[in-house]
Amino acid sequence: MNRDVIIACDFSSAAATFEFLDKFTDVRPFVKIGMELFYAEGPQIVKELKARGHKIFLDLKLHDIPNTVRKSMAVLSALDVDIVNCHAAGAKAMMRAAVEGLTRPDGTRPLIIAVTQLTSTDQETMDRELLIHHPINEVVMKYAKNAAEAGLDGVVCSPWEANDVHSACGEGFLTVTPGIRFADGDAGDQKRIMTPDAAAKAGSDYIVVGRPITAAADPVAAYKRCVREFLG
Ligand code: C5P
Fold first, then answer.
1. How far is the CA of 92 from the centre of ligand 1 (A)?
2. What distance in Å separates the CA atoms of residue 190 and residue 180, rounded to the nearest whole number?
3. Exposed site from 22, 33, 169, 176, fewest CB < 10 Å?
4. Where are the beta strands (DSSP E) in 12-82?
5. DSSP per-residue string spanning 22-63
6. pTM
7. Quick one: pLDDT band at residue 1, thresholds 50, 70, 90?
8. Does 159 contact ligand 1 (Cβ within 6 A)?
9. Chain centre distance of CA 27
10. Contact 56/82 with Cβ under 8 angstroms?
């Protein structure tokens, strides 16, 4: 199914992650694992989550020369994760190498999506530090098109950009969108937020939801509400 709710498991240890996931007795949510947890616990955390029946988005954002990315992606592919990502800033040759590295001898591979311009870099930082002088939304769309041309499956973007990404790259090109909040929830440090049902209407294929679920008094109820609102 290419539409789902992914819980951002931003925990610092396997123990904290499993303490959280043990609350889910009748469902096995799709989970996102980031650099902190992967660097702390290594590939074993991925193997344990797969053994428990979770789908995994491994959010390691690879960015290096094509040969290094190709070989590293082959290692991640062997872990049988479901989604991986890399920086579109590595350019098309690197992204093509990433797809090659991920592809198993039988032709199957995990989905791969690109990070476009990090949301932590604003226009001023791009201008002054990175010498990227095009408007940020043009940069995001150009990076998304590069990713599509390199054979990637989609991008991480704001739900506010999902429609434009689909127009530029095709309806089948996946939009994986963080920045999700319930209508009655706290925005926290997220600026351009959307509710799960609005994200669905905006064309998000996957929503990535962290604190509205992980910090909820009842995380399982919050997850189920999110699924209900997003998938209808
Ligand atoms: O807790 P919250 O719902 O804000 O978590 C969102 C998740 O999505 C976090 O893991 C965060 O690092 C990630 N993310 C994001 N914005 C981006 C890219 C990734 O919030 N542009």
1. 25
2. 8
3. 22
4. 30-34, 56-62
5. TT-SS---EEEEEHHHHHHHTHHHHHHHHHTT--EEEEEEE-
6. 0.97
7. low
8. no
9. 20
10. yes
